[in-house]
Structure formats: structure tokens, C-alpha cells
Amino acid sequence: MKKGFIYGLTAIFAANIIWGVMAPMLKSFLNMGVIDPMTLSALRMIGGAILFWIIDIITPCINHNYHYTKIDVKDIWKLIIASLLIIIGTQVVTTVAMKYTYPIDVSVLCSTTPFFTLLLSALFLRQKPKIFHIAGVIIGFVGLFMFVTYGQDDNNMNASNPLIGNILCILSQVFGATYLIFFTDIIKKYNALTLMKWLFTISGVCILPFTAGDIFAIHWAALGLEGWADILYIIILGSCFSYLLLPIAQRTISPTSIAICNYIQPITATIVSVIIGVAAITGQNSLATLLIFTGVWLVNKN
User: Fold this and answer.
1) Which of 112, 243, 244, 283 has the most C-beta neighbours closer than 10 Å?
2) How far apart are CA 215 and CA 99, in angstroms?
3) Are 116 and 299 a contacting pair, CB within 8 Å?
4) H helices within 151-300, ranges in order?
5) Which of 285, 287, 298 is nearest to 106 (CA)?
């Protein structure tokens, strides 16, 4: 087995475990009621931007082959729109969704991006899907419908409105798919560190005017040790380190391998959610998850 393949597999495996653990951790953190979803999202973006800038500054000292990449002036407007889609449109909306629904639902629904990528490709890029792709979308949408319509309120687990939460989560995946379809040029043009640095910086600047007052009003002492551990995990691992692991996998292993490893995220989220008591497994969400996983497998099939 080639060393590059092992590195890539390890990277995507680690990234999905990080994201899988982050879902129930995020729910548990929001349940504390110290920081609201919008303010937490702002902290993620600002914290992520600072970390990416620091890494970008010190990387040339460690890797002499690394060079700073300048952003073309003509790409600035693309970066602004891209940041609104992939950072604010996905992270903020998903975090707000987590307030209303279960982390298992969020984690499973976050794996549905391929459905919307396929639909947008067919609609705007005139790419013709194959029969099994269409079948995958249909099966997946049945699973989505089950999640949206059969979710029940559970105040004991702070899932006050799963219907709204799940719809918001699906909307965030539409934003993510739109980014992947229409901004492939800047994705290919700039390295991951440069791209993430600017996307997080722009989104942080955009959201700060709406959340600055809430950030300064945070009662930090109320977070406690557990709260600080949660927020550091969410910012350092969930919002920075995992995004640096992804391009390692994309360069060294096949898209099919990446797609298969993406199932690790909802599985991890389910296990951790049940252990810490922020969600429960039911027959309905199990069947819906199976349908979505089957649909994603068919859509990703070559």
C-alpha cells in the first residue's frame, strides 16, 4: 500500500471523526445557553481566520517550498460570494439548525450535498445524470422527506423544532453545493490554506457587525471547563485543522474513497450523541439514514 494513500486515508478519516464528534459537542454547548448560535458562528469564523493567518505566516519557516499566494483583484468578488455560501451559508445555518434539532439529524443531513450538486450540475451545467444517479437522488429525497416530516419535538433533549432545524440543515447543503458547482475555478486556482484564510476572514468581517455586541456581552466565566473545552475544540479542530486535512486526502486518494469515508461522520455523531444523551436512535431516523446513505452511494457511483 502506497504511503501517500495511507496519509490521505488517515487525513479524511481523522477529519470525519472530528466533524462527527463536533456535532453532539456543538449541541451540548448550545444547550448551556451561554452563547447563541449566531455569536458562536462569529467566534468560529474569527477564530478560524486568526488560526489560518498564523499558519500561513509560519508555514514558510517550516516548509521552504511553500510560497504565499496573492489573490487576483478580479477574484475578490468571487471570494466574497463564496464566503457567503460556504462559510456563512453552511456553518451559520447549520449551527442555527442545531439549536432546533438533533445532532444525529444534522450530521446525516450534512452528507446530502452530492444530491444537490448533481441536481445543480444537471440544471446549470447541462451534465446528464445516469439512471442510477437519478435513482440515488429519489431514494435520498425520500430519506430527507422522512427526516423533515417525522421529526418530533423533544424538550428533554432541547430539540424544540426538528422540522425547522432539518429544513435549515438541508438549505445549508444547497449553499454548499452551489459553492462547489460555481466556484471550481478559485478552488483549483488557490491552495487550501490561502482559500480558507480569505474565506474565513471575509465571512468574519461580514458577520462581526451583527454579533459584536453579543460577543462583548458573553459571560465567559459561566462557560466553565467543559464549555471552554467545547469551544476550543469547535474552533481549533472543527473549524481549522479539519479543513487542512481535507486537501491532503483530495490530493492522494480517489473521490470514491473520500465519499465512503464520509459515512464515518454521521456514525461517529450517532455514537457520541447517544453516549452523552443529546439524541436517541429511533426506527424512523434509522430508516431515513439508510435511505440517504444508499442515495449518496448511488450518486457518487462512477
Assistant:
1) 112
2) 18
3) no
4) 162-182, 184-189, 192-216, 224-232, 242-252, 255-261, 264-276, 283-300
5) 285
Q: pLDDT, tens digit, for every residue of 152-194?
A: 656 556 777 888 999 999 999 999 889 988 988 888 888 888 8
Give residues with Cβ within 8 angstroms of 210, minimum separation 6.
38, 42
Residue 75 carries which side chain, given as an amino acid letter? D
How open is the CA angle 259-263-269, to the nearest 5 degrees? 145
Residue 85's identity, in one-letter code, is L
CA atoms within 13 A on the CB side of 263: 14
Contact (CB, 8 A) for 98 and 37: yes
Residue bearing cell 466565566: 221
Extract the C-alpha cell encoding 80.
Answer: 466574497
Answer whether 262's CB lies under 8 Å from 16's CB: yes
d(CA 191, CA 182): 17
Judged by average pLDDT, the poorest of 27-31, 120-124, 297-301 is 297-301
Alpha-carbon separation of residue 77 from 69, 189, 248 (angstroms): 17, 15, 27
Distance from C-alpha of 168 to C-alpha of 101, rounded to nearest angstrom:
10
Could you tell me how far CA 216 lies from the centroid of its own chain?
26
Reported as a pLDDT band with limits 50, 70 and 90, residue 121 is confident
Going by C-beta distance under 8 Å and a sequence separation of 6 or more, which residues neighbour residue 32? 222, 223, 227
Distance CA 301, CA 133 (A): 8
CB 245 within 8 A of CB 12: yes
CA-based end-to-end distance of the chain: 23
> Contacts from 5-11 at CB under 8 Å and sequence distance 24+?
5/252, 5/253, 7/248, 7/252, 8/248, 8/249, 8/250, 8/251, 8/252, 8/253, 8/257, 9/249, 9/253, 9/257, 9/261, 11/245, 11/246, 11/248, 11/249, 11/252
